[in-house]
Amino acid sequence: MRLASFILNNIEPISAEWEKFAANLLPEEEFSKSVLRDGIANILKEISSDMSRFQSAVQQQEKSEGEQDNQAQVKDNAAEIHALARVRMGLSSRQLISEFRALRATVLRLWDESDHNLCKQDIYDITRFNEAIDQALTEAAVRYLEKIEQSRELFLGILGHDLRTPLGAISGTAQLISWAKFPDRNAEFANQILVCTGQMSHMITDLIELTRVQLGGGISINPIEADMQQICSQVLAEMKAIYPERVFQLDSDGELLGKWDNAKMSQVLSNLLGNAVQHGKSDSAIMLKAKKVKNSVELQVHNKGSAISAKLIPILFDRFIQGKSGLIADERQSTSLGLGLYIAKEIIVAHGGTINVTSSDTEGTTFTVCVPITQV
Fold it and tell me: In sequence order, what DSSP letters do the residues of 229-261 get, joined into one string?
């Protein structure tokens, strides 16, 4: 059987073997089945299609020099889509390249083990296959680097803008206090400074956590015996102090004992409540609910306000997602780096839990977190 046909007829076994190969290739990395197989079927189909097309000597020379086949040009082919998914998952360029190395070796090994007699055409097929893999890898690497560069530029732009906003407010408010013309308003001025420093503190914390995720492959947690109701109460008290004009309510089943990282869970709730303050109606209460559901604790943060765009929800927990990107119905000023929900998701995943969101104009927005009482 020709190699192109073999690939097309054996996508499932190739995917299964490639998954094992990739996991063994990088034993220090933790690959889930969904991460390993994501997009592989489409990549194999495109490689088989590329190998089956007629290729002149000129086209072969152009491909060897890194030029894309004009017949195969599409806006985002399977390799590029695969690369974009890897960026969202936080995989490194080394991991991306290793995946294609694993794919090349897996296909050739399985084809060699199949029942076929080696002939002259096989040499041609192997050459075409290597060309197709190299081209797919090049396209994936270029797209990966483009996305990383876009994220870097976006991140630096957001960082420069959003840190200047509270910093300018702090400077101006401190100047008003120093002039001492309005001593009866000093408490109000001090609260404004508290709000701004709180915003900056959240940004710095998110930056530190992002760095930990990128360097260490995930957020580390230190679970200890804790009461989730107490964690909720403490975070809510902090939010009331920072935003005295807003109404916060806690609805809890009472004592909710388990093993969690107190500081990290407080960070999750702080991010979710801060998000509710930023995007919710100013004249409506923000509700935090905590209850036991089987062997887990379920937390819900609810606010009234315009619904999150349906286009935004699938990528809401990605890095650098901003309300001001135009994906939310109304234009709202951003006061974060777009990392809060991403960091919250990583913390919850580290606890073995889940986080999701529902949103509508009539019901408002609800973020639901579910974490097991004991670590999994």
Answer: HHHHHHHHHHHHHH-TTS-EEEEE-S--EEEE-
Q: Provide the CA 194 distance to its chain's centre, in angstroms.
A: 30
Q: Are residues 130 and 268 in the same domain?
A: no
Residue 213 located in a structural domain: no
The CA-atom distances, in angstroms, between 108 and each of 74, 82, 121 are 27, 21, 15
The domain in which residue 341 lies consists of: 224-372
Query: Quick one: CA torsion of 97, 98, 104, 105, rounded to 10 degrees?
Result: 160
- Choose the final residue of a domain: 151, 170, 190: 151
Q: Yes or no: say if 46 and 80 are a contact pair by the CB < 8 Å rule.
A: no
Both tokens of 343, joined, read 């960091």
Task: Enter the tokens of residue 212.
Answer: 């930990």
Identify whether 20 is part of a domain. yes
Residue 9 resides in a domain: yes
Count of domains for the chain? 2
* Buried/exposed 145-155: b ≥16 CB within 10 Å, e otherwise: eebeeeeeebb
List phi, psi (to 5°) of 287.
-105, 130
Q: Which three-class secondary structure string do you get for 86-153?
A: HHHHCCCHHHHHHHHHHHHHHHHHHHHHCCCCCCHHHHHHHHHHHHHHHHHHHHHHHHHHHHHHHHHH
**How far is it, in rounded angstroms, from Cα 181 to Cα 161?**
30
Q: Please, are residues 334 and 322 in contact by the beta-carbon 8 Å criterion?
A: yes
Domain boundary (151, 166, 194) is at 151
Q: What is the pLDDT of residues 204-256, one digit of tens each?
A: 766 666 665 554 455 778 899 999 999 999 889 888 877 888 999 999 988 89
Summarize pLDDT for 140-197 with one digit per residue, the tens. Answer: 999 888 887 776 665 665 566 556 656 666 777 676 666 666 666 777 777 777 767 7
Q: Measuring CA to CA, how many Å separate 67 from each of 60, 72, 138?
A: 10, 11, 10
Strand order in the sheet with 248-252: 248-252, 286-293, 296-303, 364-372, 354-360
Distance CA 254, CA 295 (A): 16
CATH at 83? 1.10.490
